[in-house]
Every structure is written in C-alpha cells, then in structure tokens.
Amino acid sequence: MTGESPPVRTSERTRTDTRTPDAGPTRRVDTDSQEQEDERSRDTCPECGGDVHADDQRGDRACKECGLVVEADEVDRGPEWRAYNSSEKRSKSRVGAPEKQTLHDKGLSSVISWENRDAYGNALSAKKRQQMQRLRTWDERFRSQSAKDRNLKQALGEVSRMAAALGLPDDVAETASVIYRRALDEDLLPGRSIEAMTTAALYAAARMSNMPRSLDEFAPVSRVEQQEFARAYRYTAKELGLAVEPADPKQYVPRIASDLDLPDSVASQAERLLEAGRDKGIYSGKSPVGLAAAAIYAASVLENDRVTQRTVGEAANVCAVTIRNRYRELLDAAEA
DNA sequence: CATTCGTGAAGACGAAT
DNA sequence: ATTCGATTTCACGAATG
After folding, report:
1. Which nucleotides of C are covered by protein (CB under 7 A)?
2. What average pLDDT score do residues A278-303 get?
3. What pLDDT score was predicted for residue A22?
4. What is the predicted pLDDT for the residue at A161?
5. Who is most buried in A26, A176, A177, A244, counting CB within 10 A?
6. What is the 3-state secondary structure (H, E, C) of A53-91?
7. Which of A211, A197, A153 minimizes the C-alpha distance to A17?
8. Closest CA relative to residue A70, chosen from A42, A98, A94
9. What spatial distance separates the first Cα and last Cα of chain A, rounded to whole Å?
10. In this structure, is the CB of residue A128 within 7 Å of any atom belonging to strand B?
C-alpha cells in the first residue's frame, strides 16, 4: 500500500436497484381515469370486435379472438416459492414480504420506528411515547435473543454496508449472507474476526456472482487488514468447498476502462488480447487484475489512445511493473 | 522532462515435505 | 510447521521519446 493519496474511485457506478422486494415483472396498468372507465365498460375487443372473457388464472380479461389483454391483472402475484407438494404448499404459502437473508431474523419481524410519530407523522403523546419505548425495549430483546443472533445481526449489517460501498447489488449481499451463515454453522469463526469473515463472504459472493471485486478494492471498505480477510476467504472457500472459479480478467476490463474514460474500442481490443492470451495459456498463476490492466495498456497503445502504465496501474490497483511484465506476453501471444 | 524498461531484494502464496 | 518455486511489489537507475 502506498502511503500517499489512495486512488479515489468516485466513478464507481452504484447500481441503484429499483426492484421492489417481491415484485416480479408487474404489468403496468394505465390509470388514466377515462381509459379505465373505457376498459371496464367494454365487453368487445377494441381490436377485432371479438368477445372478451376473463382469465381466472391471471386475473386478466382478454379477447378470445386475438388474445389482446383488455384489463390487466392488478394484483401483484410476484415471484412466489414454488410448492412441489401439499406440505410445502402449506408451509410456504404465507403473507408478507419475501424472506431476506440479509436481515438476521430473515426479515420476519415487525419494524418499530425510532421516531416518536404515528403513521401520519404526528407527534405522539407522552403516554404513547412511553409505551413505544417499552415496545422497543422488548422488541430489541426478542430480536437479539442469543449471542449467535447478535453476532449475525452485526455481521449482516457489515455485509450490506460493504456491498453498498462497492456498488454490488442486493442479491450478492444475500449470497454473502448465506455463505456467512454456513461458515457460522460450521464453526469456522473461532480464531477469525467477524469483520474478516463478513468481508471474505462478500468477496466470495461477488466472485460467484460473476461481478468480482479485487482484494484491493475490498481493503478500503473493510474494517480489517487485507491480509486478514484474504486469509479468512481462502480458509472459508476451502472448508465450505465454495465453487469459486478463478476470476476472468475480462470482467475487470470494462470497469477499469471506464474509470480511465477510454473509448470502447480500447476495451474491446483489450478483451481480444485477453482471449488470445488465454488460448495461449498465459493465464496460470497470474493475477487476473494485472492481466486486465496489462491488456488495457497494450490495447491503448495499439489503438493510438495511449495512457501511461502508471495511470492504468492506479486505476486497477496493480503496480506498473506488473503491467510491464504482462503486456509483452499478451502482445506476443496475440501476434504469434 | 516524462515515460518506459530492467533488475534485485522482499513479501505473500500454494504446494509439497 | 517449514521449505521451495513462482509471482508481485518496491525502489532505483538507465534508456527512450
């Protein structure tokens, strides 16, 4: 690590995940009042004039002739768990939001706001406030019953925080949570800090979701040293037998390229070089990020859009020497 | 002058003993 | 637990444009 100003990666895109928790592809229903009135009164298809019949399965009303949906389903039947037999059907059918692994109680609890306001935003009376305070106290006791739960609670908060900082979508955090729970179940924690394990879990999850972040990217957002969570990761991956494939250098290319404001032509050239390199078997044992950085540098030279080795190195968190060592090999592989 | 290149020492890692 | 081989990083100086 250099002591001087660490590269600021403000351009890291934070994917705003706008999916509602349990909403599948909710079909949009036009709510313009006249239109709605129109639709309701219509019993013949506007397209072909055929009869409109109700589709009970989906709550649609559609034309028998042409299949045009006249009145869309207004009930959100979002993705639900498939029930494969009657007992599953009984146990899985339920009301409410889907279970979320990122919440230590899987999101099944009620949430009591800390604000002393009612649902309309009005201040609460003194008596009500007292009641709420007692509720909160008990709520807290229930939520954090065992030490294990408290542990989980803290850990999963960490996971969410880091995922957000790295621009990783929610489902990666969920995967990380699953990994962390497994690690906990297998008693992998003793001797390792919670922080190290959470970071390791998220790192693994990111790689398993094909959106890897390098160890160097994790270092600034984790509360523990890189070495520590790197060790924890290796240990966990081995013990849990996680199916983590070696990261594909190509997955780093777009992010580095856009950090440097390089044109797409350079990025695609870099990917070509990487493919050539992979086919020639240059990959083994080399750091994927280093490879990606070298490919980008080489591509920038080839495309006459030169950036310095050091610049690329800083964007990718590898040192210029590594780029030097790799980019010749890549060019050789591409030429031959 | 900035950038690139080459080199040796040092640290970390995986595999083997 | 230690040792070994490969790789990356750092620091430096030399060459190149």
Report:
1. 6-11
2. 82
3. 38
4. 92
5. A176
6. EEECCCCEEEECCCCCEEECCCCCCCCCCCCCCHHHHHH
7. A211
8. A42
9. 36
10. no
Closest CA to the C1' of B14: that residue is: A285
The token duo for A304 is 């006459």
Tokens of A123: 């201040």
CB A202 within 8 A of CB A168: yes
pLDDT recorded at residue A12: 33
Using pLDDT thresholds of 50, 70 and 90, give the confidence band for residue A65.
low
So what's the pLDDT on residue A185? 83
List the single protein residue with the shortest CA to C1' distance from B7.
A321
Cα A118 from Cα A125, distance rounded (Å): 10
As a whole number of angstroms, the distance between CA A158 and CA A164 comes to 10
Number of residues that make up chain A: 336
Joined tokens for residue A31? 């709510």
CA gap A28, A23 in Å, rounded: 12
